[in-house]
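Hey, can you fold this one?
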Amino acid sequence: MHGAFSYLTAQKSELYRAVMLAFVAAKRRFTVHLRPEDVCDVLGPGTDLDAVATALTALEGWGNLRSDPDTSRVTTVEDFHRARYLYQLTREGEAVEEALAVYDEALGRRGALQAVALADIATQLRALHELAVTDHPDPAKIHLSLRALVDRFTDLAANAQAFMGSLQRSIDLHDADADAFRAYKDRLIDYLQRFITDLVATGSEIAALVAAIEELGIDLLLDEAAWREASDAAPGAGGDDDPREAEFARRAQLWRERWAGFRSWFISTPQHPSQAKLLRSQARAAIPQLLHVVAALNERRTGRSDRSADFRTLGLWFAQAPDEASMHRLWRSAFGLSPARHLSIDADTLATREHTPVPVSTSWAEASPLEISPRLRRTGSYERRGKPSRVADRSEQRRHLADLAERQATELAAARAALVSEHPVRLSDIGTMDPDAFRLFLSLLGDALTALTPGQRDVSTTTSDGSMAVRLTVLDGAGEIAIATPGGTFRGPDHLVHIVDLTEPAREVSA
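Sure. Predicted structure:
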């Protein structure tokens, strides 16, 4: 069944692979047939024609190639009786080469954090939003926009996953060259910081666009794309039913699954944070990990002892110990471990200790012994074997968690209402905040400051769930302000801030 893959494990696999790549390159040039002489020309000077002819015959036997008689250059009867063939790829051979190309690409992929892809996704979403507000949108434009959105998003997700995997492998390289790793670290940290900034700014815009499109009706757009793809469905064998209906149902379900995956990548839910938020957390966590690796390399260069060197030295001391008693003393000195005496305690022991207390300064040798159950000596457990315990009723704990979640949601709503303002206000005009409102305020202020680039005077951003928006404006000559909170006083430069609750349809961030 998989005979077309046989040449990969054959004795002359390198020659077979080169021959197959010659046919793949010829197909890219729209050349269908190749003669053995043509293959030799592609492989380069010095290639043995007989070896190539033998390889072509073997590949034909495995099903990778197909041969046809070559009668175009027959001029004599002898030429007619001499075997001459034209070779071309079979469907099996072409499928094998496509699979190997995907395999090679996956192994060689380094991945990247594509800030440009985020901008492209935002552009496609803005185009979809314009189509959604149109009374009679063009189905072709809807389909092309959705296809471009899916392709760009798939590329972004795959590259981000590959990059974070390669980044973790780079962090785990403890034997890397110190100077090369330091230079790589500086460029990588700058790269991560730029992507985090773009992810905060563009990701919030994407979340807001997704929410706006869904409010206008995303199902209509997805159905238009599904109908356009179903219009090319081929008729079924011997059936009178319209095949487009079944194909539409399948395509519509597929587009809804794609949109759900895309939405969960940028918008968080109470139980499941978005993949963009997780990616941002991983990128931020990678920066201190890189710094830790650099610190370890610096310590190794300066000759400071690390833990592995300490253990090697300790192992050498154990090997040089004169007797077993010295090994035990070394063990206790190095680790401070001693046998455990109080393995268990019961009511009788507690009553005895209460009646006759033992000072903590009493040595182990002078203290009264502790009686241990024989069952513990034999089995290592006090419990008797028998029927398993009953399944515990967790309904009370579940009710407690539900009440806790409801209370937290109420507190978050109250904090959100306390921060929302009709007009921009100065930070110095904000009064005392309760702890919940202050935590939410710090989160919003942190997102806005992260998106504020050098030289920029104002910035607008939204939370990852698209529920709130904040606009921050730098003030000229602003002094330091102080905001009183139950946990202390928050100090910093004064700014103009405008916080809006996007869950209320009547409000929107001013341009």
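The chain has a mean pLDDT of 77. Let me know if you want another pass with a different chain boundary.
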